[in-house]
Every structure is written in structure tokens, then in C-alpha cells.
Amino acid sequence: MKIFYFDRTGGACDYYRATLPITTLARIDKSFEVMGMTKADLLNAIENDNQNKAMCLLDADVIVLPRLSDTKFFDQMKELNPRAKIVLEYDDNLFSVSPFSPHYEDHGTEEVIMEFADGKKLEVWIDGKNINIAKNKTALDGIKRVMGMADMVTVTTDILAEVYKPYSKIVKALPNCIDGKLWNRLPLMQRNDIRMGWFGGHSHYEDWTLLTPVLSDVMRKYPNIKLVIMGSKFAGTMKDIPEDRIEFHQWITTDAYPYKSAILDLDFAIIPLRDNKFNRCKSNIKWVEMGALKVPSVTSLVSPYKEHATEENGVWIEGNSAESWKVGISLITENAILRRSLGENAYNTVMSKFEINGQAHLWGDAYKGLSNVN
Q1: Strands, sheet with 225-231, edge to edge from the N-terminal-most edge strand
Q2: Is the pLDDT of residue 10 over 80?
Q3: I need a surface site. Which of 27, 326, 342, 364 has the fewest CB within 10 A?
């Protein structure tokens, strides 16, 4: 079977959802041949009659398109290769994006005005000002239409699959996985501080604010804690934390990310997540990445994390109260033996359920099943 997949940006989403599982599948199962390419490279190859590159699409049995939102490109693929089965891949609930996320500009369908206790109002999203609601509704309708045209939709979790089932004939949940060969725990350095890590982008502001009333108290209680952040730094929420106790790192390339994560030398990670419709449809990849490094995590006990939570593989915060977060962080800060035990058990969970060499067959089974789809 020949599979053609798009790597739209070279970023983490396309890597986890297409590049890693599909290339691993081809390596362990020689009945699959695969080729990945950016959309721009493919269109350029077709336009310039580059047969070597173009034929990988024209000969494909399955074409995998991540996060497609327009029927025009879908139609182009079908015109070029009418016999191929087309699979669409999505890793978020695009119909319930939080208004605290900058992506609400592209997916939001309602105005958002916040009203405070003193009666003041903050216009967050106003139609015609910083959001085009009619345009967004048209775009979301386009996503629903293109899902209905596809032969299959693949997503990260069973919860997200339920969201998209009304729009597609087949929806399969295929978990985000890591390549265990790339995620290697390095020996902890000899030091006196405790390194507490948080990784996240700007869309996680709403989740991060769960810790606003927590971190200053925790870091005052434990003067040896260093807060290590990769991604986005919400400085306004950390005014009570001395700057010299915050270590900030920018995002880096996907290829270097596992090594960078390892050399940050974390003792434990914190993964706050609010319990809402959008977050429940996310994947547990942050916990998986930390577990692959044997880094234990203090994590909100909500989907998508609670489905794999045990008392042995992490500290789990039920209810997300500030007091519960303080207790959980204190517990793991004070007990090095517990940190090692939780890290080892998290690693065992990850390697048994989320290591790609043991899970790539799920993609193979899904693609082979398309041969029976009319």
C-alpha cells in the first residue's frame, strides 16, 4: 500500500500526527511505501512536471491531509488521483476553541464580553473589530463538509472522535506517541535546587492561571525551587516571583525538542488544565513526553490525562483548587524517592501505551481497512 502524506509546516502537530507514525509504519511493515511532502512542494512539482515527486501522489492508495479546512484542495487531490482514499487528520476540537486562545479569531462564532464584579466590561472579541463571525461560521461549515467528503477522519482520542462522528463516515482515534529512541533521560546534575518545569504555548493562558494563586506561595515555602518554562511566559501572572528563580526557554525545532527537554534537567513537571469542552478533546502528549524522560508530573485530573492516571504514575489534582495544587506540589517537592518512583512508573505507562514502535500498527490497520470502503 502506498501512502502519501502532507507535512504542512514541519511543526510538532504534523510530526506527531503524520510524519512519525507513518514513517515508522513503513519501517516496521514493508507492505507500506510512504512519501511526505509540503503542500507548496507538491503543487510546485506538479506545475513544473517533476514526475519523480508528483508520481508519489498520483500512485498513492491513501492520501493523508492534516487539518484541512477547504474543499478546494480536497477536490484538487481527488482530481489528481481519483482512486485514492483520502484521510483527514485533526488534533483539536475546532468547534469549541476557548475565547482565551488567540485561535478564537479564526474559529470563534460568538462575541465575548467579560463583565467584572465592579460592573466594568471588557470587550474581548467583537464582530467586525477583531473577529469576523460570519467568515468563521463559513469556515467551520467548510470543515464539516470536507469531513463528509473524506473516506476517514483520524483524531487523537475517543472523546474527540465523538465530536467529529456526526460529520464523517469513519472516525478513528489514533493516540499521539513518542519515539522512545529520541527521549532519553539524562543523569540529574549535582545541585541543591529543585527544577519544576512547565511547557506550553500562548493558547494555554487560561490553564496557566490556575497556578497564579499557587506558585508564589509554593516558591516562598520552598526557596530552592526554580521554575523552568518553555514556550510562553505570562509575566503578568508572576509578579510575586523573583526573576532569578524563573528560567525561560523559547520553543525550538521539532527535531531538537526531545534533547532540549532532556537537558533542562527537570525534577518534576506541572501540567494544569481546565476542565472544559475544548481541553477534554486534547491529547495527553505533555504528560507522555515527560514520562518518556522519567520526569514525574503534577497534573490536573481531567481528560485527556485522567484516562491513564494511577496513584503510582503521577500526582493528580482533582478539582483544580489552589489548595490541592499547593498540596500536590509540596508532596513531590519534599520527597525525592517519590519523584523517582513516579517517574519510573510514568515511563513504564508511556512505553507500553504510547511508544510509536508498538503502536504504529494502529495506523496500518486503519489504512488497510479503507480497502473495504466504497
Answers
A1: 246-249, 225-231, 194-200, 268-271, 297-300, 315-317
A2: no
A3: 27
